[in-house]
Amino acid sequence: LLEVALPVNGEVSRFPLVRRDGAFLVLESVTVGAILDRLRSSLPKIVVDISVFDLYRGKGVPAGEKSLAFRWLLQDTQKTLTDAEVDAVGAIVRQILEKDFGGKLRE
After folding, report:
1. DSSP 3-state assignment of 12?
2. pLDDT digits (tens, 9 = 90+) for 42-51
3. In the sheet that 18-27 helps form, which strands lie side by side, from edge to edge?
4. Cα(72)–Cα(75) distance, integer angstroms
5. Rounded-to-integer distance, Cα 3 and Cα 17, Å
6. For the whole model, what pTM was predicted?
7. Which of 42, 43, 59, 99 has a C-alpha 20 to 30 A away from that of 33?
């Protein structure tokens, strides 16, 4: 127990949390861990969390691929986020999935 890191308190924001979702098709060989590591190291500090909430294989998904649905939460402690700031994060997520992992936005 002594080796476990203690949680660190952060500033509590008075401003609203924004949630966005996106589903992408990626090759079966691409790992969720690799994607999340890359996203977490590249996204701005207003992204307070990013996770995968769905994995789908089956009808509508080509053989050798899987559909991963991501959810990212954004919040600033100093102001309300603008639509442009929120959209910019979505564009970064999409760009990373497409360029680094060969992903395609699932519509």
Report:
1. coil
2. 999 999 999 9
3. 47-56, 65-74, 18-27, 104-105
4. 10
5. 32
6. 0.86
7. 59
Q: Give the separation between CA 33 and CA 10, rounded to whole angstroms.
A: 25
- Look at residues 30, 15, 13 and name the one whose alpha carbon lies nearest to residue 70: 30
Residue carrying the six token digits 């203690």: 6
* Lookup result for tokens 């919040």: 75
User: Burial, 104: exposed, middle or buried (Cβ in 10 Å; 0-12, 13-18, 19+)?
Assistant: middle
Amino acid at 105: L
Closest listed residue to residue 86, CA positions, set 95, 96, 76, 97 = 76
**E strands present in 1-107:** 18-27, 47-56, 65-74, 104-105
